[in-house]
């Protein structure tokens, strides 16, 4: 015997009238607030009840920053090699392959140019989902090339950092990406092209010791973890209890390293306001 | 509205006027004539009092609790275009020194200034407008950023002095101020400095070297506050009036000894009595100064600025 029985026959609901099938996908923020993923998406991936900024990747940031989500990706095909024949619990090429399959990304950064509020902006955005957003040769090269694009076309440059630091599997080569990216930023600075660094959760290790802290303005989102040595390392090394809020974006603002913290929904406006002010152009509405 | 001791006759007349108006509203008595007379007397009294202010009275006005502060000016001048920027990229974001970008008309400016609080809580938060080394380093960072992009700088000076604290010394208060003075002297963009309230000593000069140095009519500017001067030279706090007199710290005196370029007139009763009028006066002073400077090449600008400072000082032989 069935639980439900259709009494009326011949019911025909048009497509528009049909309710969305429940996706069964909910997001639970660290404070336990539950939100429908659709609603989360519409709210710039910020939990509406507690303001928790969910970790998002390049796809979502491009969608937030570029008008109508239109942009041209730069160097989309660059891929890592395995110059050191690195092997830990896994061979590096296998790790790369697994990461690519899992994330559908080529590496831990995507770079793109597009219109933001009607004017060109070059954005390099890291993806934490790809081996912890770690910076190897590909990340360094793509950021350097994107900065070059900015330099040649005189377009403001923005990096969205989201990274655990340098990529161990590329050892010293990955360390040198700190220098490589910083060199490019020096060239941008000499050319007087604005560079905005957005530090998102988490921005640690080699990224803070290079491009993440070198913006004409360094900005962040609420509650992001930003620091050189991670909190666990600091705690284990010093044996000290860490103060509350240690290495949060609010902590960094108080200690003078951030120009401001912005809610994600104001991000596009604030970045463009800064660009209009510092380039002495009329403010775009 | 708060009144200073020398403003008491004004307070009395304003209260009389109010009472008179209330009588007029609540009863049949025609008070128009009486009100008019009181108003007339009020205007005359105000004129009389504010025309002959002593230096000490001006010092009091410069510290008037209702006086507009740096952020009031910036918000009035820039409205929604103001974007505050924080931090010295070194140790701290100093709340006593604020800065950011904003537009007057279609021109961007980098605004920097000491900020005081409005009540006990915010006064403490702003450390009474006394910046630490990180405040001066934040100011310098913003000035260098403005220079990089060719944005002119406007500073609002309003401080009883740089903060004389233990940590301030540890972090090099003197070095921070010195560095600012040197760097400001060769900044390749126009720099306009305005004393809006108190301009005390190195704390003021740390954001006070520029092409144009202006003062509001009731602001003061000197090497020390009259109280501290009295305590050091007279060995008592009691001689602040004489000290204020002797220091020649008013806008008029500063102009006559050529340490400032111009005076911005305040409305009768001081900046706080008609804020809008004050904001307008400051705005037009900034734009006028900028107009005079904007067409100079960076090289000429710096040369002229340096020459201006070479001419300061009086000596013989």
UniProtKB/TrEMBL annotation, chain A:
GO terms for molecular function: acetyl-CoA carboxylase activity; ATP binding; carboxyl- or carbamoyltransferase activity. It is found in: Cytoplasm. Gene3D superfamilies: 2-enoyl-CoA Hydratase, Chain A, domain 1. Residues 24-285 form the CoA carboxyltransferase N-terminal domain. It catalyses: N(6)-carboxybiotinyl-L-lysyl-[protein] + acetyl-CoA = N(6)-biotinyl-L-lysyl-[protein] + malonyl-CoA. One of its GO terms (cellular component) is acetyl-CoA carboxylase complex. Residues 1-23 are annotated as: Disordered. InterPro entries: AcCoA_carboxyl_beta (IPR034733), Acetyl_CoA_COase_Trfase_b_su (IPR000438), ClpP/crotonase-like_dom_sf (IPR029045), COA_CT_N (IPR011762). SUPFAM superfamilies: ClpP/crotonase. Its main location: cytoplasm. It comes from the Bacteria. Keywords: ATP-binding, Cytoplasm, Fatty acid biosynthesis, Fatty acid metabolism, Lipid biosynthesis, Lipid metabolism, Nucleotide-binding, Transferase. Its EC number is 2.1.3.15. GO terms for biological process: fatty acid biosynthetic process; malonyl-CoA biosynthetic process. Pathway: Lipid metabolism; malonyl-CoA biosynthesis; malonyl-CoA from acetyl-CoA: step 1/1. The keyword Disulfide bond does not apply. Component of the acetyl coenzyme A carboxylase (ACC) complex. Biotin carboxylase (BC) catalyzes the carboxylation of biotin on its carrier protein (BCCP) and then the CO(2) group is transferred by the transcarboxylase to acetyl-CoA to form malonyl-CoA. Acetyl-CoA carboxylase is a heterohexamer composed of biotin carboxyl carrier protein (AccB), biotin carboxylase (AccC) and two subunits each of ACCase subunit alpha (AccA) and ACCase subunit beta (AccD). Belongs to the AccD/PCCB family. HAMAP family: AcetylCoA_CT_beta (MF_01395). This is Acetyl-coenzyme A carboxylase carboxyl transferase subunit beta. It comes from Xanthomarina gelatinilytica. The lineage of its organism: Bacteria, Pseudomonadati, Bacteroidota, Flavobacteriia, Flavobacteriales.
Automatic annotation (TrEMBL), chain B:
Signal peptide: none annotated. The keyword Lipid metabolism applies. It is an enzyme of class 2 (transferase). Residues 37-292 form the CoA carboxyltransferase C-terminal domain. It is found in: Cytoplasm. Its EC number is 2.1.3.15. This is Acetyl-coenzyme A carboxylase carboxyl transferase subunit alpha. It comes from Xanthomarina gelatinilytica. The gene is accA.
């Amino acid at each position: 015997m069935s639980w439900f029985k259709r009494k009326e026959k011949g019911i025909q609901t048009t497509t528009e009238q049909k309710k969305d099938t429940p996706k069964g996908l909910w997001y639970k923020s660290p404070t336990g607030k539950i939100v429908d993923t659709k609603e989360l998406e519409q709210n710039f991936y910020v939990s509406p009840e507690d303001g928790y900024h969910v970790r998002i990747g390049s796809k979502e940031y491009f969608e937030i920053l570029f008008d109508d989500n239109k942009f041209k990706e730069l160097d989309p095909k660059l891929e890592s090699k395995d110059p050191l024949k690195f092997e830990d619990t896994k061979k590096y090429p296998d790790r790369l392959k697994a990461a690519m399959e899992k994330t559908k990304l080529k590496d831990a950064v995507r770079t793109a140019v597009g219109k933001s509020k009607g004017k060109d902006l070059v954005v390099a955005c890291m993806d934490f989902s790809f081996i912890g957003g770690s910076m190897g040769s590909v990340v360094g090269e793509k950021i350097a090339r994107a900065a070059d694009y900015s330099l040649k076309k005189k377009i403001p440059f923005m990096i969205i950092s989201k990274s655990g630091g340098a990529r161990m599997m590329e050892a010293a080569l990955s360390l040198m990406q700190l220098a490589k990216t910083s060199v490019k930023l020096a060239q941008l600075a000499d050319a007087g092209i604005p560079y905005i660094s957005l530090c998102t959760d988490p921005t640690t290790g080699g990224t803070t010791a290079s491009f993440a802290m070198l913006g004409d303005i360094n900005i962040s989102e609420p509650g992001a973890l930003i620091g050189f040595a991670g909190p666990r390392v600091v705690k284990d090394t010093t044996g000290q209890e860490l103060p509350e809020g240690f290495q949060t974006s609010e902590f960094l603002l108080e200690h003078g390293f951030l120009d401001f913290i912005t809610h994600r929904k104001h991000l596009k406006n604030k970045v463009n306001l800064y660009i209009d002010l510092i380039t002495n152009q009329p403010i775009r509405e | 509205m708060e009144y200073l001791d020398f403003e008491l006759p004004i307070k009395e007349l304003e209260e009389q006027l109010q009472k008179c108006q209330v009588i007029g509203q609540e009863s049949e008595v025609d008070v128009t004539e009486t009100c008019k007379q009181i108003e007339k007397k009020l205007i005359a009294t105000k004129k009389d009092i504010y025309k002959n202010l002593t230096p000490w009275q001006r010092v009091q006005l410069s510290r008037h609790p209702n006086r507009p502060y740096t952020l009031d000016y910036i918000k009035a001048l820039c409205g929604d275009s103001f974007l505050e920027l924080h931090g010295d990229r070194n140790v701290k974001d100093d709340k006593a020194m604020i800065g950011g970008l904003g537009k007057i008309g279609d021109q961007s400016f980098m605004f920097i200034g000491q900020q005081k609080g409005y009540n006990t809580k915010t006064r403490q938060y702003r450390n009474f407008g006394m910046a630490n080394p990180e405040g001066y380093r934040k100011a310098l960072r913003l000035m260098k950023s403005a220079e990089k992009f060719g944005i002119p700088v406007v500073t609002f000076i309003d401080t009883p002095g740089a903060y004389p604290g233990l940590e301030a010394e540890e972090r090099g208060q003197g070095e921070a101020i010195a560095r600012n003075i040197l760097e400001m002297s060769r900044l390749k963009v126009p720099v306009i400095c305005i004393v809006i309230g108190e301009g005390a000593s190195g704390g003021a000069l740390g954001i006070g070297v520029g092409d144009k140095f202006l003062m509001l009519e009731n602001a003061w500017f000197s090497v020390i506050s009259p109280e501290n001067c009295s305590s050091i030279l007279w060995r008592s706090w009691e001689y602040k009036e004489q000290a204020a007199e002797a220091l020649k710290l008013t806008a008029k005196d500063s102009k006559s000894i050529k340490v400032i370029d111009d005076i911005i007139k305040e409305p009768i009763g001081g900046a706080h009595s008609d804020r809008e009028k004050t904001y307008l006066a400051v705005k037009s002073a900034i734009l006028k100064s900028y107009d005079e400077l904007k067409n100079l090449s960076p090289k000429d600008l710096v040369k002229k600025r340096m020459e201006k400072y070479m001419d300061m000082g009086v000596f013989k032989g």
